Structure formats: C-alpha cells, structure tokens
Amino acid sequence: MTKIKYITAVSMIFACSMIVTCNSTGKVTGTDLITDNNEVLPIHISTSFFWEKILPWRDGKLVTSDSKGRYAEISFASGNEAKIKPLVDFPRMEPWVIGFETFPQAGLITSLMGEHRVGLIHLADIDGNITKSHKPMRQWWAHDEVITCLLDPDEGLIAYQYPIDVEYINDARIENIGTSTYIYNYKTDNMVLKIEDPVRRSVTDFPEMAFAVDKQYVLGYKWKSAETPFSWDGFFFDWRTYEIVRNDLTETMNQMGITPWHKSINLERRYLFASIETQDYYQGEFSYLRIKRFYKISWDENYSNITINDISYMFEGWWQKPGIISIDISPDGSWVSATILDLNINPGNGTGYYKRMFFHVDDKYPDGISMPVFAYGYETIAGIKGTAFVDHPVHGMCLALGWQEWTDLAIDRVNAIGVLSFKPQELLGNGILLFRMEDVLAVINRQLLEGEKNNEKR
Q: Could you report the per-residue pLDDT of 198-231, keeping only the tens digit for each?
C-alpha cells in the first residue's frame, strides 16, 4: 500500500464526515497546541525538584528516583503543576543507575546499581511493602548484562539472568555459550531456582527470557547463527517444566528475523512493531543496498491467523524507520509513540536529531493504525530523561517526556601525569513535556476531512 492509497482508503472508511473519537470524557480539548503544519506542541511543566528519570506507573502518575536516590512518585495537579514524594525510603541509589524498570501491573520497581557485574540489584514491591537488595550473583568478566523478567506478579516471581553472549576460547569466537538463571520469590524471600553454570545447549541452559506471555510461558530466545544477518530462535518457554512451545507467531518472527523489544509489543491488543533491515537489492559485486522496513504484526487469541502489515509507506522520504527501543505504547494499547532519526540534519558534531511521532491504533484504519502525527521540533538523546504514557487528571492520555539541561562538561585541571579532572556539572533546569493525545486525534480528524475534500474534487 502507498501513502496515497492509504489516504484514499481512510477517506472512504470515514465518509460522511465520520470523525474518530477518544474514549475519554470530561478532559480538556482544543487545538491550541497544533501548528499550521499539523504538528503537535507539548505542554511544558517545569519542576523545582530533582528527579533522575521518568518511568510508567499507574493512577495517572509516574515513577522516578528523587534527590536522595529513593524510588519516588510524580503526580500532577491542575494548573500544570507536578509534585514528588518518595514511595519507599529505598534504595538510596548511587548516581550511576542502569536497568531501572517498573512493572505497574504488579506495583513493582527494580534497578541495578553501577556496573552490571559488580552492582547491586534492588527490588521494591510497593503494594506489599517489600524491599530487597541482592549482591551481584555473577561477577565473571563475560557477564556484561543482567536481564530482568517478571514471571508471575501474583506469586511474586521474578527472574534475573546473566547471559554470556560471546567468549573467546583458544582464539575461537563462541556465541551464546550459556545463561546463568536465578528465579526469586520476593513475596516469600526465597530463591526458587538457581542455575549458575549451565552446560551449553543442555536442558538447564535457559533461553534469554524477554517477557512473560502469561503466568506459564515467557518469550525466550537462543542464539542460532552469527551469520549476516544475525539470527535468534524465538519460542514460548515454560521455566518450570523446560517445555518449548512454537506457534504461528513465533515461527513468523523467526522467519522474518524479529526479536521484539518488550516495549514494542502489546499482548492485550495482540500486536507488535518490528523494524527490519535487509540486503535484498544487489547493486554489484560485494555491494548491496540495505532496505529498511517497518511492520505491524497482529495475531488471534491462539497466536495464529498472523497478519503482517508492511507500513513502511508511512515514512516515504525518510531513510531511517522508527527505532524499536524508542517505542512507547499506552496501557490500553490505543496510542503509540516513537522517534525516527532525521539524517537530513547533520550538525557535524555527531549529535543525532530525532523526530517524535504518534499513532492511533484502531481497526477502523487501514492496517489497523493511523498515519503518523509528528511533534513540533526535534529531540536529542542527551536531553531526554525517559518517556511514558500517563493518564493526566486534566489533559487525559498524554505522552510524558522528561528533560534535563546541565552545564557543559569542562576540564578543571590536569595533573602532573596528564590525568584530567572535570568540574562538577550543574543542573540548569528540568521538567516534563506532555503531548496530549486529544491534540493528536484532532490532527488525524483534520487530515481525514482534508483527504475527503480532495477526493470530492477529483
């Protein structure tokens, strides 16, 4: 499908001025935050308090860490104000925090401290008033990351995995030689399963567990091939029985070379997004044109009847496609946000400029998704401190984007042996930008009406 065909199809579907409506009621609406180019502007909320990074939570709130390194909650009030309060007096995190995650449905927050192989693992069950810190379970140099997977929030089961993706033995490169797996019950404070040194390709060599599909299965991956393109084998995995289950969805992902990011899939609405780069177009000896595609894939309740929609046509004129790790999906699966790198902007200093976009997911649209609506301006990775959808008490469903601005890194002195010391950076300001989905919907409706009028003129 081309962009023109999409617009024509939409106009036919929404004939007689049928306008898409949002399910929210009693929310502020209006088009004062829409430019003449149909780009949406954010609401700026300046925050006088320090916070580290915003993450999705529940009840119209966000999670972050405060100035004392505690897990904290950001809430909103009328008048575009925000306030912060600690959820627990824990964990007093150090400045370098990685693996900061929330599981809103379970009221759970986790984080890793410092380097993966030496940092503590922290967990807080807010509803159960439970906090726990684990010392590093594996400290071998080859373990350069920790995977966290919530298995069963009702039972309180969470998995920590230390994969060894690459090791050199006698100058030979060995891929994915094994994964150390620890499954912990935070409600009973009990380590349910501990597999430290599994034999490669044995039954105890668990796959890397991406996320729980349900209380029985997780989506697991195992390294299959180091050829170009790299290849992973995906399947449903029952960690209790070691059972491997394959279905139409997993086989489709394997055939297409898809390893979905946990934020790019919505299990309730049964769809995922995938960005694939191929080298199909041969231009001459040792020369291929890399073709980038962007897909929306959906399935039924049995993980069958797979529908593959190539929606690359939505990004005509863009060399890049939306980045999978930049995707956010609203809790009800109706809204999607992502960014795309604009290669036309090249300041020469290595800074990448990204354009943010929004989609409305609804079966009324061709391919089940609207054309993208863009945000005004550009973003750089350096200034962004997290994104999350939040149901604002006044503005309804919004994409919250955290931003911070610091002084430039400057050299303080150079000692006698040439080691540099830097001046402490100072925080110049921070805040939260709110992009209202009501405004995104208004742009979609405006474009539908314009498309209908253009069809009438033909």
A: 776 677 789 999 999 999 999 999 877 655 455 7
List Cβ<8 Å contacts ≥24 apart for 276-279.
Answer: 277/229, 278/229, 279/228, 279/229
pTM of the entire structure? 0.85
Q: What is the dihedral of CA 77, 82, 88, 91, to 10 degrees?
A: 160
Distance in angstroms (rounded) separating the CA atoms of residues 170 and 181? 26
- Dump pLDDT digits (tens) for 33-84: 999 999 999 999 999 888 888 999 999 999 999 988 899 999 998 778 999 9
Give the angle 34-36-38 at the CA atoms, nearest 5°: 55
CB 192, CB 183: distance < 8 Å: yes
Quote the pLDDT of residue 78: 78
Give every CB contact of residue 96 below 8 A, 6+ residues apart in sequence.
Answer: 113, 114
C-alpha–C-alpha distance, residues 61 and 399, integer Å: 12
Tokens of 245: 């289950």
The CA–CA distances, whole Å, from 343 to 2, 125, 355, 377 equal 22, 43, 11, 15
Specify the pLDDT at position 451.
Answer: 73
H or E segment and range at residue 252: helix 248-256
What's the pLDDT at 318? Answer: 86
209 burial via Cβ count (<10 Å: 0-12, 13-18, 19+) = buried
Give me the phi and psi of 263, to 5 degrees please: -85, -10
Per DSSP, the three-state class of 232 is strand
State pLDDT tens for residues 3-23. 544 544 444 333 333 333 343
Buried/exposed code over 366-402 (b: 16+ C-beta within 10 A; e: otherwise): bbbbbbbbbbbeebeeeebbbbbbbbbebbbbbbbbb
pLDDT of residue 334: 98
Q: How far apart are CA 135 and CA 178, in angstroms?
A: 21
Burial class of residue 105 in the structure, from the number of CB atoms within 10 Å of its CB (0-12 exposed, 13-18 middle, 19+ buried) = exposed
Residues 6+ apart with CB under 8 A from 395: 27, 28, 43, 434, 436, 438
**117 DSSP 8-state letter:** T
| Alpha carbons 103 and 108: distance in angstroms, whole number | 5
Confidence band (pLDDT; 50, 70, 90) for 118?
A: low
Give CA–CA dist 202/257, Å, rounded.
24
Token pair, residue 232, equals 């992973």
